[in-house]
Amino acid sequence: MLHPTATYSLPDIEPTRFVVNPAEARFQTTDGKTTGASPHVLNAGQVDRDKPSEPRRTATGEMTPLGQLRANLTGLQDDINEFLTHRMELAKGKKD
Amino acid sequence: MSQDIVKKISSCLGPNIPIESVAQGAEAVVFSTTVHPYHPNAGTDKKYIVKYRPPKRYRHPSIDQALTKRRTLGESRLLSKLYLIEGLNVPKLIACDPYNGCIWLEFLGQELPNGNGFSNLKNFLWMYASKGYNPHDNVVKETLHAVGQQIGLLHWNDYCHGDLTSSNIVLGKVKDGWKAYLIDFGLSSTSNLVEDKGVDLYVLERAIMSTHSSYADDYNAWLLEGFSQVYQSQGSKGETKLKEVLNRFNEVRLRGRKRSMIG
Amino acid sequence: MVNLNTVRPKNGRDYYIALGLEGSANKLGVGVLKHPLLPQHEDGDLSFNCHAEILANVRDTYITPPGEGFLPRDTARHHKNWCIRLIKQALKEASIVNPSLDIDVICFTKGPGMGAPLHSVAIAARTCSLLWEVPLIGVNHCVGHIEMGREITKAVNPVVLYVSGGNTQVIAYSEKRYRIFGETLDIAIGNCLDRFARTLRIPNAPSPGYNIEQLAKRCANKETLLELPYTVKGMDLSMSGILAYIDSLAKDLFRGNKKNKTLFDPKTGEQKVTVEDLCYSLQENLFAMLVEITERAMAHVNSNQVLIVGGVGCNVRLQEMMQMMCEDRANGQVHATDERFCIDNGVMIAQAGLLQYRMGDVVKDLKETVVTQKFRTDEVYVAWRE
């Protein structure tokens, strides 16, 4: 099956491509590392009830195609978010 | 008008002061009487206005009493200061009872000819828009110039009316025209902020546009001419300030007076 | 006169169905609404009586721990992860089997509101629209409140007091627009109450405003009111001053600052004022200001009817005070809805959206579905009223 990809491009740098590696753990869950509740709220005592639902599985325990797609996207989103955060920190560093 | 309100004010004033109801606004009710509040020899050929702020039962009594006193006093103080400004025409303050929320004022204005009602600007303009009259008559232009000048004087002295509508401008007949008076300073304040002045002008412009739409463009232009004359007669300082006020007025227009909201 | 049947229902049906999606703040609402196709709507001014039938009205609220407000990121996350569940639930309750055939239009909140949460819901709306090939319409959140209020209460042309966490406006209809007569110069009343609730660290469930109302009810000393700044300026009001002051009182109370003579007796050091007293005084002052500016608008437009909409409209004390003011004005009346419709919900978006749709408004290009944090009530052209 086809996997989603993402490309980040700006005039001044080489485009960055994000791909799915289905074997890696972050592409097998819908509970992303960067898409959880904010630490600030958790520290204030929040019980998180807003997690995305688990990926749907068939009778044999395999993820359904849509379930897989959701899991793939979760990992991809994590990669994108980390990349963008890094870019923001670089930009901040340049400003300081 | 609620009988309750008439009863309350009558009990404040006592049996010797007969009153006739004139108007009811959001905050205050207006009566007229021919009896002077404290002058023993005033006679009964003159009329006076009694502006009464009745208690509002929806709010807590301590808020109500504090507000009534503060606003009655505030309006009275403002009126007495404005009366002293040369060239500015406002009603003369005769008496003030802040605890009962009562203000006595001189009676301004008169009946317009041909049953056109009381001589406020609204009725005056409606009269000139009616059959047999010319809405672009020179009298209208000069009267609106005079009104503009009053507002100009008010603003030049760093006061803002707060509720400039054509009902709050009263005209008194003089030899060859009409003298313009500003009334109802319940929402007024001292202010040197261009924003407040811009909003004042905008409120009047909108009021004219909504009640006299067919000729509003001309009427508003004439008002502004009179307004500008006051500032222009004050030399270069006046010119600068005039530009500031008019610029802000334009901004307020574009903004629609009200700011953008969030959420 | 207006023709509300300008656009006909899909598939030759004699009724319209709209799906409404709302998420401008911390409440995510999904509603399914039905309007019958009626001949009297062809040539009348009856948009306050659509004979609307509510087929589903589900909502989930993102609630934070006491002392915390809701921030965009987590609110958007809540909406993103709950919207499918709620939409599915709503469709099931409404017995919608085939959305492509059964739904005429998908209505979503275009604004105003918080950016990220609005965005989450817009994405859901666009996705459903593309998936089912159903047209979209963007709705102004405030107009949604107004139209729902009109339909539920059947008030024909009242002055509307719209009071919520994000808005405080006095509105009257005139010539195809909902004109804003008076509004807050700084913060909204719901925001003021919510922030005070945070200072008091009271729970945010079911809503901070509700909990302040209950505390105020329990005030034992209603004859004495604390003196708070009263800040009505003409047709507008300001609340940041009163909030700052009452926040400082609350903090002094918690810290036991005996120097504060309002709170503590200077000789005995005894506490004179309770948290209930603070809540009571705050409400009495804030609501008196709201009633005053509403009364001014009523005098201006010569109306004796008031419709209260928005979350703070659930407050019984506010309704009582407004009722008293209205009675004193030529026997006027107050109209209000209950928490199903006062508080942000999806049905109100469907109601306003469906009225827009029936008059021929619809999204022609997805670019039009960008959400906007600032969206004034008077920017909407009210085609469905005379």
Instruction: Round the mean pLDDT of chain B to the nearest integer and report it.
Output: 89
Looking at how many chains there are and whether they match, the oligomeric state comes to heterotrimer
Please count the beta strands of chain A (DSSP E, at least 2 residues each): 2
Helix content of chain B: 40-55%
The largest sheet of chain A, given as strand count, sense and whether it forms a barrel, is: 2 strands, antiparallel
Largest sheet of chain B: 5 strands, antiparallel
Q: Radius of gyration of chain A in whole Å, from Cα?
A: 16 Å
Just name the CATH architecture of the largest domain in chain B. Orthogonal Bundle
Overall morphology of chain B: globular
- List unreliable stretches of 5+ residues of chain A: none
Instruction: Provide the residue-averaged pLDDT of chain A.
Output: 92
- Ranges of chain B with pLDDT <50 over ≥5 residues? 259-263
Number of discrete helical segments of chain B: 7
InterPro entries (chain B): Bud32, Kinase-like_dom_sf, Prot_kinase_dom, Tyr_kinase_AS
Keywords (chain B): Activator, ATP-binding, Chromosome, Cytoplasm, Hydrolase, Kinase, Nucleotide-binding, Nucleus, Phosphoprotein, Serine/threonine-protein kinase, Telomere, Transcription, Transcription regulation, Transferase, tRNA processing
Subcellular location (chain B): Chromosome, Telomere; Cytoplasm; Nucleus
GO biological process, one term (chain B): positive regulation of transcription by RNA polymerase II
Please, could you describe this protein's structure?
The complex is a heterotrimer of chains A (96), B (263) and C (386). Chain A has 96 residues and is of the alpha+beta class. Chain A has a domain at 1-30 and 62-96. Chain A has helices at residues 39-43, 65-95, and strands at 6-10, 13-18. In chain A, strands 1-2 form a two-stranded antiparallel ribbon. In chain A, strand 1 (6-10) and strand 2 form a beta hairpin. Chain B folds into two domains: 3-106, Phosphorylase Kinase, domain 1, CATH 3.30.200; 121-256, Transferase(Phosphotransferase) domain 1 (Transferase(Phosphotransferase), domain 1). In chain B, a hairpin with a 4-residue loop joins strand 4 (93-97) and strand 5. In chain B, the strands form three sheets. Chain B has a five-stranded antiparallel β-sheet, covered by helices on one side. A two-stranded antiparallel ribbon of chain B has the order 6-9. Chain B is an alpha+beta fold. Chain B has helices at 3-13, 61-83, 121-128, 138-156, 194-211, 216-232, 235-255; strands spanning 20-24, 29-33, 48-52, 93-97, 102-106, 159-160, 169-174, 177-182, 189-190. With 386 residues, chain C is an alpha/beta fold. Chain C folds into two domains: 10-150 and 342-379, 2-Layer Sandwich (Nucleotidyltransferase, domain 5), CATH 3.30.420; 157-338, 2-Layer Sandwich (Nucleotidyltransferase, domain 5). In chain C, the strands form three sheets. In chain C, strands 3-2-1-4-5 form a five-stranded mixed β-sheet, with helices on both faces. In chain C, strands 8-7-6-11-12 form a five-stranded mixed β-sheet, sandwiched between helices. In chain C, a hairpin with a 2-residue loop joins strand 7 (168-174) and strand 8. In chain C, helix 5 packs across helix 6 (208-217). The longest helix of chain C is centred in the C-terminal third of the chain and has 27 residues, at 275-301. Chain C is globular, with a radius of gyration of 22 Å. Chains in contact: A-C, B-C.
